[in-house]
DNA sequence: AAAAATATTTAGGCAAGTCTAAAAATATTT
DNA sequence: AAATATTTTTAGACTTGCCTAAATATTTTT
């Protein structure tokens, strides 16, 4: 009753795609996300279906069973706990954690997960503002919102981006906005929804397009 | 130029068997250690040989090349660092660390290893008294000795066993000797090499057979 | 030094997980 | 609703890492 690393990755991917609104997850969506071919996906979902981890009907896409969801949430819990560890204890920055957490999440040990959780003080959210399921699989909703939704007067800090194109990341860099940067929303223009924000260094105006692509957590 | 988990396990096994005195490591020795079949070992050794990680001649056993040794030492370094982490930070006991460290040692990230090392304060020895290679692969000799070799008057603590049969472990348990137990050698009988030792609780006499099967680190 | 025992390798097979190319089903256009 | 495009599945192949059974070397015994 134990899953391979690859099976775990598929379950996690199905969970995440479902989480973004899909009731049934298509073969192609999975292939894209997992950077593999559709035929490989078909192979694997048939295996997962036989194991009772997904509901699958040919050509109709796939959905996690309760058991499959349980497994997926356990992996996500481990992934996010390790991210907290890497950032808080080992000086990893926002963009360095993912690959490593992706490996650590597959380490199998109930005790390890439980002790790590305790060691970190039972965190409820990871460095990206995403919720960490507790040992029962329960979790609070995400704390992150796009900057465009923050009300004037609020102070928040950057935890991620929607559009991760290098063009956008260069823009942010040029404007002194990094992950972790604190900022205060001073005002919002009703005409074009542009915002005036204040960072430690200076005050600047950003367009709504920018504000919609930046995830923040409100303090 | 990147090795699979299985390849890493073979290299580590070859290193450990060599470390116990063997110049050439036999196929069977590897099969026993890795709990696999001799034919599987032959398969793998041939692959490692093609990769330049071992020197191999049919029927003559195998030896690590300098490159193979470098890889093996890196894995051992990671294994032992994780053992320190598990014991010192996550309350793992002596016998619980191995399986988990065995998984963690394969996580690939230079930064992770370096930061973990620093976080733990650059330890030179793991909880079993075995040396931890530094980032250059250099290490001090093992600190552990069998209790039988400890001079009267010395204080030491248990870090492991030679014979890990449950019969022996039960004996230790019954006599209040656990891993981590502090003890002082009071005297040694020249006739049968039995020893009088003192633990926190009481003073007792143990035979040479027992003393030869218990690893300790001298304080 | 031949025979017997043991160790090692080869040959052929299997499961997981991937791929390409082709076939089949579904969705979209016209 | 027929034609076209897209998506999904099947078929067949490859690699890794393991297995069993048989063949071949080496070592030990007599």
- Put simply, the count of helices of chain A is 8
The SSE string of chain A, one letter per element, is: HHHEEHHHEEHEEEHE
Largest interface: A-B, 19 and 19 residues
- The best one-word shape of chain A is globular
Strand content of chain A: 15-25%
Question: Which strands sit side by side, in order, in the main sheet of chain A?
Answer: 3-8-4-5-6-7
Oligomer: homodimer
Major sheet description of chain A: 6 strands, antiparallel
Rounded Rg of chain A: 20 Å
Runs of chain A in which pLDDT lies below 50 for 5 or more consecutive residues are none
Distance between the termini of chain A: 43 Å
Mean pLDDT, all residues of chain A: 94
Number of DSSP strand runs of chain A: 8
Assign the structural class of chain A, choosing from mainly alpha, mainly beta, alpha/beta, alpha+beta, or little secondary structure. alpha+beta
Helix content of chain A: 40-55%
Describe this structure in words.
2 copies of one chain form a homodimer. With 219 residues, chain A is an alpha+beta fold. The first copy, chain A, has helices at 5-19, 27-34, 38-50, 66-88, 97-104, 110-119, 166-174, 208-211; strands at residues 54-56, 62-64, 144-146, 155-161, 182-188, 195-198, 203-206, 214-218. In chain A, the strands form 2 sheets. In chain A, strands 3-8-4-5-6-7 form a 6-stranded antiparallel β-sheet. In chain A, strands 1-2 form a two-stranded antiparallel ribbon. In chain A, strand 5 (182-188) and strand 6 form a beta hairpin. In chain A, helix 1 (5-19) crosses helix 4. Chain A binds chain B through residues 86, 89-92, 96, 99-100, 103-104, 106-109, 111-112, 115-116, 119, and chain B through 86, 89-92, 96, 99-100, 103-104, 106-109, 111-112, 115-116, 119. Chain A binds a DNA duplex (30 and 30 nucleotides) through helix 3.
């Amino acid at each position: 009753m134990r899953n391979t690393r690859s099976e775990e990755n598929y379950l996690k991917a199905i969970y995440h795609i479902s989480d973004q609104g899909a009731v049934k997850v298509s073969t192609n969506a999975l292939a894209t996300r997992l950077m593999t071919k559709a035929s490989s996906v078909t192979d694997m979902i048939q295996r997962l279906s036989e194991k009772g981890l997904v509901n699958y009907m040919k050509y109709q896409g796939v959905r996690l069973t309760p058991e499959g969801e349980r497994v997926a949430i356990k992996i996500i819990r481990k992934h996010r706990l390790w991210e907290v560890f890497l950032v808080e204890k080992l000086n990893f920055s926002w963009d360095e954690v993912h690959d490593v957490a992706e490996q650590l999440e597959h380490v199998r040990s109930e005790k390890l997960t439980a002790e790590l959780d305790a060691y970190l003080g039972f965190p409820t959210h990871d460095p990206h503002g995403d919720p960490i399921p507790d040992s029962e699989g329960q979790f609070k909703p995400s704390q992150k919102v796009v900057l465009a939704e923050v009300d004037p007067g609020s102070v928040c800090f950057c935890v991620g981006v929607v559009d991760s194109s290098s063009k956008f990341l260069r823009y942010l860099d040029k404007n002194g906005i990094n992950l972790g940067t604190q900022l205060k929303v001073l005002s919002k223009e009703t005409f074009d929804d542009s915002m005036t924000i204040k960072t430690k260094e200076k005050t600047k105006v950003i367009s709504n397009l920018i504000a919609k692509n930046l995830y923040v957590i409100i303090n």
